[in-house]
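Morning!

As promised:
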Amino acid sequence: MNLLDFLIALPAIGFILALLVPRKQEKTAPFVALVVSLFTFVLSLGIAAGYKTGEKGLQFVSNGVWIQNPEIHWHVGIDGISIWLILLSTFLTPIAILLSWSAVKDRAREFYAFLLLLEFGLIGVFAAWDLFLFYVFWEVVLVPMYFLIGIWGHERRIYAAVKFFLYTMAGSVLMLAAIIFLYNRAGTFDYAVILDSLSSGKIVFSHLEETLLFLAFFFAFAIKVPLFPLHTWLPDAHVEAPTAGSVMLASVMLKMGTYGLMRFCVPLFPTASRENAPWIVTLAIIGIIYGALVTMVQPNMKKLVAYSSVSHLGFVVLGIFSFTQMGFDGAVYQMLNHGISTGALFLLVGFMYERRHSLAISDYGGVATVAPWLSSMFLVTTLASIGLPTLNNFIGEFLILQGAAQAKFTWTVFAALGVILSACYMLWMYQRVFFGETNEELKHHMPDLNPREWACVIPLVLMMVWMGVYTQTFLPNISESTAKILDQSRANVPLRVALPAAGTDGGRHAR
Amino acid sequence: MQNLWIIPALPFLGFLINGIFGRTLSKALVSAIAVASVVLSFGWVLKVFFTAGDLGANPISEHYFTWIRSGVFEVGWDFAVDKLTMIMLMIVTGIGSLIHIYATGYMAHEGGYYRFFAYLNLFMFFMLMLVLAANYLLLFVGWEGVGLCSYLLIGFYFLKKSATTAGNKAFIVNRVGDFGFSLAMFLIAVNFGSLSFDKVLQAAPGKPAGTLTTIALLLLVGACGKSAQIPLYVWLPDAMEGPTPVSALIHAATMVTAGVYMCTRSAPIFTHAPIAMETVAVIGLATAVFAATIGLTQYDIKKVFAYSTVSQLGYMFLGVGVGAFSAGIWHLMTHAFFKALLFLGAGSVIHACHGEQDMRHMGGLKKYAPHTCWTLAVASLAISGFPLTSGFFSKDAILGAAYTHAPWMFWVGVVTAGMTAFYVWRAFWMTFWGEYKGHGHPHESPMSMLGPLMVLAVLSAVGGWLFNVPKILENMFPVQEVEGEMTLTMISVAFGLGGIALSYYMYVVNRELPAKITSSLGWLYTLVYNKYFVDEVYDATIVSPTVTGSRVFLWQAADQGVIDGLVNGVGREARGIGGWLRRLQSGNIRSYATWVVVGAVGLLILMSLAYGMQGGGAR
C-alpha cells in the first residue's frame, strides 16, 4: 500500500468515522471531518512534493487485482494532470467543511460524512487507471452529491437532485456500455494495457465503432462539464444545493467531465476526437457566448454564478479540442482556475445567504458600506473570474485562446467575445449587490467576515494570485503530461485519416 | 543591473500598506506613505536615468522569471527601458508625484481617504508595469490593471449610482478595445512565435503586409478603447464622476495616453501597414474635430476638459498616423503638463466653489483664487498653442507632419485648434471673469494644492522647448523636414489666437451673444449639446437589444422553454420517476433509501480498500 492508496483511503475512513459519531454528540462531527480532511490535504501535499517532474509515465502507481472475474484491477497512479486535480479536491474539501460550520445543523454527521465520501470519490476518479475502477468512482461521486442536494438543499431540492441524478446517469449508462465493449475487445479493463494494445495495433476499431465509442464516452463527459445544450441541470442543482455542495460541484465535479475528455476520449479515440472536433468546438463556443448572455440576465446570484460556469467550462472544452499544446495546457490550468475562483464565488455568495437569507440580487445593494472586507474579497474573486491579468483565470484563458488561434483564428475571435461579456455580467452584479445606498434590512444583518470565514477565503485568494503570477509551480508538470496526450492523439491516428491542417499542432509556431 | 522592478514595486508596497492597514492609520500617515512611495519611485527613475548612460545605444533590459511557458512559447516577467520608456517613466512618476501631493489637499475632507490613496498607488503600479513591460503580454497586464484602477476610482463615490455606472461603462468599453488588443496579441504570437518587443519588432518588416495590417488594426481597436477614440470614446466623459485628481492623473495625463504609447512602441508594425496608418490618422483627426465641437457647448467644467482630452488624444493619433511618432509622444508629454494642470486647476475651482461644477454658477474667481487663476491661464495658453508655450511646439510638429502627409488633414487640424482655443478660454472667462454667481464664499485652495499647480504651470510654459522629444528620440524615429514650416506655424497660431479673441468677445465683451447664437442654431445646437446622442444610439442599438434578447429569447425561451422543456418532458415520460419522487418526499422512506445507498456504497468502499491493500502489497 503506497501513499496514494492511503490518500484515497483516508477520506473513506473519515466517512465511516463521521457516521460513527453518536447522534447525541453530533457537534463533534464537523471536527472529525475537518481533521480528516486536513490530514488528507497534508498527505496530498506530500505526494505533490514527491512527484518528480521530468520522469515519464505515472507515479505513485499501485496495481493489483481487485476482482478476479472479470478481472478488474485496483490500478491507481498520478500524472501531471491528475496530481493537480487531486490537490484541488483535497484543498477544497476542508474549506467546504469549514464553511458549513454554522449553516448545517440538521443531520450534521451525515452531511460531513457525505462530504468526505465525495472527496473519496473525487480522488479516486482522478487517480483511477482502470476503466472499471474509474466508473465505480465516477458513480460513487454521484451518490453523496445527490444527497447533499436532496437533503440539505433549498425549496426545490428534490426536483434539482433528481434532475441532476437522471442527467448524469443517462451519460454514465452509455459510458458503462462503452467500457464493457472495450473490455470485450481488449480482454481487460486496465487502461494502460488498452492504450498499449491500441498503439501497437493489437486492437483496431472500425471507423463506426470508434465513432460510437467516442460518442458514448463524450456524452457522459459532456453532461458533466456541462457542454451546451446539456447544461440545464447545472443551474438548478447549484441554486438548490447547500453552499458546500455548490462549491464542490462547481469546483471539482465539473472537472470530472473535462478531465474525462482529456484523459480518455482523446487518447482512446484520437481519430474520432479530431473528426468530431469542429462541431464540439462550435458547441463550446456557443456555450461560452450563450452562457455569458444568459448569465447576464439572471436575477439570482447563485444562478448567475452557475450559468457563468457554463461559459467558463466552454473555454476548457475549446482548449481540449484545439489539439494544441497551449490549448491543452490552458484547459488543465483553467480547470484549476475555475475551481478556485468559482468555488470562492459560491462560498462568498453562501456567506451572504447565511446573513440575509436571500439569493435575489434585488434584495441586496450597498453591501460595501456595511461589510467592506467581504466586498473586497468578492471584488478580487470577481476580477479573477473575469480574467484580470495577474490573477489565475487570465493564464488559462490566454493559453486556451492562443491555442485556439493556432488551430483556427476564427474560433478565437468568437470565444474572446466571452471575455467581454464576463466583465459585463460580473461587474453589473457587483454594482447592484455591493454599491449604492445600503438598505435598512442589510444594515443590521450584514456583519463583515468572521475569523472562520476569513480562514475559508484567504487560501483561495492567495491561490488566485499565486496561480496568476507564478505559473511555473504548476505548468511544467501539466505541460509534460498534456504533451504526452497530444502525442497519443497523433500516434494512434490511423493513416487513413488526414490530420487537420498543419497549423493545428502549433507547427506554424516560429521558433 | 538597474533593479527596474523597484520602480513599480514602491507604489505597490504603498498600495498594500494603505489597502490593508489604511483604515487604522491616521490620514497624515496614509498620505505620507502614498506620496513617499511615488516620489521615491520618481527618484529611482532619476537614478536610472543618470546612471544608465546612453539609453539610445544601450537600452536596459532585465529578466526576472518566466511567467508562462507552454511548448515552445514563453513569456517572461521582463522589463526594458529605452529612451521612449524613459520619457514615459518621467511623465508618469513626475506628474504622478505632483498629483499625489495635490490629492492630499483635495481629498482631505473626503471619506475613504485611505481607499483613495490605495487605489491611486495601485494605479501607479500598473501604469509603470505598462511602460516598463518588455513584451506585449506584460504590457497587457498594465493595460488591464490601469483599467481596473480607473474603474475603481471612477466609482470611488460608490453610493452614487451614476458613478458606479460610469465605472462599469469605462471597464466594459475598454474590454471591447482589449478584445481587439488581445486578438492582435494572439496573431502576433502565431505569426512571430513570441510576444517580446525585441523579437517581434525586429521581425516585423519581413512579414506580409496583410498580416501586419490586420495586427495593426486590431492594436488600434485596443488603443481606441484605452485612449478614448471614435467609436469607443464614450466612457471618458462619464469618467469625470471620479474625484478630480483622478481625472487629472488617469483620465488626462497618463492612462489615456497608453494607446498612443502602445502604437508608438509598435511603430515597426504600423509603418509597414500603410492602410492601418491611414486609418489611425483619420480616426485621430475625426475624433479631434468631433470632440472639439462637443466641447464648445458644455457647461460642466470637467466635461469641457474631458472632451478636450478626447480631442487632444486625437491629435496624438493624427501624429502617429502620419508617421510623426515622436511628435505624437511630444504632444503626449506637453498634454500631460497642461491637461493635468487644467484638471487640477478645475479641481481647485470646484474646491473654491464648494463642489459646484457648472460654470454658469461660477465667475469672478480671479479675485478669490488668484493663484489658481494665473496657473490656469498658463495652461489655457499652452493648449491653445500660444507661441513658445509647450503646446505650441508639439501641436506644431504634428500639424506640420500632417501637412506633409495630406494638406487637408492640416486644415482640419488647424480649425480644430481654433475651436480648442475657443472652448478652453470660454471656460476660463466663464470661471474667472465677471462676477461670482455661485453660493457661499469662494476661497483659494491650500498650498498642498497650489504647489503642484505652480510646478505644472512652469512645465506647461517651458516644457516644450526644455524637453525636445523628437530630438531625444531621433535614433528611433528620424524627423522629417517640413516644407514651408514657418507659414504653417503662422496659420495655426493665427487660428489659436483667433479662438481666444472670439471667446473673449463672446464671454467678456458681448455676453448676450452666445445665447443668441445657440437659439439661432436650433436643432444643430441641441444635437451637439447632447453629444450627438451617441450614448442613446449605442444604448438603443447594442445594449438594450443584447440584454432584452438574452432575457427573453435565450434564457426564458431557449433555456427554460425549449431545452428544459425537453428534459422535463423526457422526465415525465419515464413513468416511474413520479412515483419515486413522491416516495422520496415522504419522511421515513427517504431515510430508509438513504441508508440503503449509504450501506451499499460503504460496502463497496470496504471491498475496494481490502482488495486495494492486498493488490498494493502483492506488487
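Chain A touches chain B through 91 residues (CB under 8 Å).

Hope this helps with the figure draft.
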